[in-house]
């Protein structure tokens, strides 16, 4: 593996860590509704478990209500049960073919708990990014040891990997701050 490949690989994996962190942030519920909130809920569809988005149309009815419209008539009750049984704390209500999923208001205490969860998730993402930096640095040192790269190239590359790491950690910090502001706004 060359120096360029090591740096590209580290950048790619760090970006994947950011994407995974963003995905985990979407699961943390703010007071507002979001169709992505139901992405983790799976429904029994003829023996196989599928995400709701694959058996129904998920849309926003208003800022605090998600609408779910099943594509098949018999799926309404199953979707409603899956949402109710999920760990999201939602209580769906059927109106004909449409399932309304109102977002309950959150207490101040619950908001503070969720900010702690967001910060913890942010720390996990930072640790993952730092581990990737360590792995890349070890690979660079191995290249020098195997005499496939010079020590100057190694130092330069380690500096570049550090700059990349700093950039991704700054991105994590910005995401955490944004999510905490979302949570604390009433």
TrEMBL record:
The highest taxon in the source lineage is Bacteria
According to its UniProt entry, the protein's GO biological process terms are: cytoplasmic translational termination
Q: What is its subcellular localisation?
A: Cytoplasm
**Which CDD domains does the UniProt record give?**
RRF
**Where's the Ribosome recycling factor domain?**
21-184
Record-linked InterPro entries: Ribosome_recyc_fac, Ribosome_recyc_fac_dom, RRF_sf
GO function term, MF aspect, one: ribosomal large subunit binding
Name the SUPFAM superfamilies on file. Answer: Ribosome recycling factor, RRF (SSF55194)
Q: Which UniProt keywords apply?
A: Cytoplasm, Protein biosynthesis
Task: Kindly report the protein's main subcellular placement as a broad class.
Answer: cytoplasm
Q: Cross-referenced Pfam families, in alphabetical order?
A: RRF
GO cellular component annotations of the record: cytosol
Question: Which HAMAP family has this protein been placed in?
Answer: RRF
| NCBIfam families per UniProt | frr
- Which protein family is it in? Belongs to the RRF family.
Q: What is this protein called?
A: Ribosome-recycling factor
- From which source organism is this entry? Polaromonas vacuolata
């Amino acid at each position: 593996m060359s120096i360029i490949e090591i740096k590209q690989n580290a950048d790619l994996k760090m970006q994947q860590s950011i994407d995974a962190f963003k995905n985990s942030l979407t699961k943390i519920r703010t007071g507002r509704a979001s169709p992505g909130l139901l992405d983790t809920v799976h429904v029994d569809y003829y023996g196989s478990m599928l995400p709701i988005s694959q058996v129904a149309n998920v849309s926003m009815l208003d800022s605090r209500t998600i609408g779910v419209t099943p594509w098949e008539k018999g799926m309404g009750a199953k979707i409603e049960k899956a949402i109710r049984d999920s760990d999201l704390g939602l209580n769906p209500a059927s109106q004909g073919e449409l399932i309304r999923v109102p977002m309950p208001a959150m207490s101040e205490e619950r908001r503070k708990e969720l900010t702690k969860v967001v910060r913890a998730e942010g720390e996990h993402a930072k640790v993952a990014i730092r581990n990737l930096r360590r792995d890349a640095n070890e690979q660079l040192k191995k290249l020098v040891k195997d005499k496939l790269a010079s020590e100057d190239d190694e130092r330069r590359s380690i500096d570049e990997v550090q700059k990349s790491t700093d950039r991704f950690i700054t991105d994590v910090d910005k995401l955490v701050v944004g999510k905490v502001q979302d949570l604390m706004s009433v």
